[in-house]
Amino acid sequence: MILVDTSVLIAFFKGEKNESAQKFRKVLDKKIPFGINAFIYQEILQGAKSEKEYELLKHYLVNRRFYHPKHPIDSFEKAARIYFDCRKKGITIRSTIDCVIAQTAIEYDLLAAS
Asked: For position 81, which CATH number holds?
């Protein structure tokens, strides 16, 4: 199972031909199961340009498999640890939400498409 990140879905929906969008196209073509989490769902919907696009995205995404943190407090603590450990190594994570997405993938032993 694959957890598909926001950036991959945006590129795919825009019809971009970058590496991530092409990999996601292969996932769809091969009917490989994929899912998202609530943060990815929110990020995609808040980027909609119109009511029509919002409803279209919502209709497509709401039927995907959703992965939620298994243990909310522990999951967020571990996501914070990802951010902390990366920062100590000089790596800046652009969003704390990305750490929660990564932790979700770890908890479910998912491949992350990003």
From this structure: 3.40.50.1010
In DSSP terms, which residues pair with 36 in a beta bridge? 66
Q: Residue 108: exposed, middle, or buried by beta-carbon count in 10 A (0-12, 13-18, 19+)? A: middle
Can you say how many angstroms the Cα of residue 7 is from the centroid of all Cα atoms in its chain? 8
Q: How is residue 70 written in tokens?
A: 């298994």
Give the number of domains in the chain: 1
Q: What does the block give as tokens for 26?
A: 């292969």
In tens digits, the chain (114 residues) has pLDDT values of 899 999 999 999 999 999 999 999 999 999 999 999 999 999 999 999 999 999 999 999 999 999 999 998 999 999 999 999 999 999 999 899 999 999 999 999 998 766
Q: Which of 8, 3, 14 is nearest to 53 (CA)?
A: 14
Tokens of 96: 């704390």
Q: What is each CA distance from 106 to 2, 22, 40, 49, 73, in whole angstroms?
A: 11, 24, 16, 32, 15
